[in-house]
């Protein structure tokens, strides 16, 4: 999830103790009769896979080094083919459309010299100071976490998720899907010829950011052959997904690791599978500054 939400404009850093929150969250309630872990995971994955369009607002918290950032963005996405538009509260806009602009994103920085830039979504500028690529916007990260890596035979992290009861996020009833994975740790891995951070992250199902941070690597550059890396063996030690009871889409995603809170994303005003006019994914759309 990318972000994609900060879009090149870092938010103010805060101490961890001051930013951990669940907007509008109610205490957990007893499990809903008839709901099971298997059914919830299946419905969640099906809802994500069947998305045709998505509109929402995202509140994000991410740990960068020993500090945290907060960011708020509105987003709209179309699928098959993938199309993404994001705008943050500082007026920065990003548009990425499959097969256009040589694979680059159009970025309006809303700062001098007030011109639209073409930037690689996985390049250093767009990945600086954020956990995810703009291409992860929406729920792609969650689908990957639940699916796990086909290259990693150990599926104990994916199997650790359990339906643990009900809650409410911003007034909407939700199911809680929780993972408690005390085996989380960093392991050593020797990079093969031409391997990238993305490829290593795919093998371990751990996301790219901590590999880059721990080993001083860039997302868009090959890793030196034979370099010994420190890599997380899963996405987190504790993971919470609050799933909307009507939409079966996540309204909150929270991941912790050996250092505490790693990231939290809250999705508000979610509108799924309502038509979005094609012109809203063009840089000429009248409501954009692109």
UniProtKB/TrEMBL annotation:
UniProt keyword Amino-acid biosynthesis present: no
Organism: Hymenobacter qilianensis
SMART domains the UniProt entry points to: LysM
UniProt-listed PROSITE patterns: LYSM
Domain LysM: 187-231
Residues spanning the signal sequence: 1-28
Name under which the protein is recorded: DUF1571 domain-containing protein
Transmembrane segments annotated in the record for this chain: none
């Amino acid at each position: 999830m990318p972000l994609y939400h900060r879009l090149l404009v870092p938010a103010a850093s805060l101490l961890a103790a001051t930013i951990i929150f669940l907007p509008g969250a109610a205490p957990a309630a007893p499990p809903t009769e008839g709901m099971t872990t298997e059914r919830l995971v299946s419905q969640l994955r099906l809802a994500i896979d069947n998305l045709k369009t998505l509109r929402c607002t995202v509140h994000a918290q991410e740990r960068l080094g020993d500090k945290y950032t907060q960011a708020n963005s509105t987003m709209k996405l179309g699928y098959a083919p993938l199309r993404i538009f994001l705008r943050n509260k500082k007026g920065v806009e990003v548009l990425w459309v499959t097969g256009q602009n040589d694979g680059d994103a159009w970025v309006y920085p809303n700062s001098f010299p007030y011109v639209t830039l073409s930037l690689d979504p996985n390049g250093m500028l767009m990945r600086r100071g954020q956990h995810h690529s703009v291409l992860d916007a929406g729920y792609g990260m969650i689908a990957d976490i639940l699916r796990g890596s086909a290259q990693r035979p150990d599926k104990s992290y994916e199997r650790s998720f359990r339906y643990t009861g009900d809650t409410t996020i911003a007034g909407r009833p939700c199911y809680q899907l929780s993972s408690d994975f005390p085996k989380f740790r960093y392991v050593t891995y020797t990079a093969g010829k031409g391997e990238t951070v993305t490829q290593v992250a795919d093998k371990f199902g751990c996301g790219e950011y901590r590999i880059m941070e721990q080993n001083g690597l860039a997302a868009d550059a090959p890793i030196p052959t034979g370099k010994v890396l420190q890599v997380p063996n899963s996405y987190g030690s504790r993971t919470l997904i609050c799933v909307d009871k009507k939409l079966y889409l996540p309204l909150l995603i929270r991941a912790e690791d050996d250092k505490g809170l790693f990231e939290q994303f809250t999705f508000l005003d979610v509108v799924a599978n309502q038509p979005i006019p094609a012109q809203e994914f063009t840089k000429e759309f009248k409501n954009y500054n692109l």
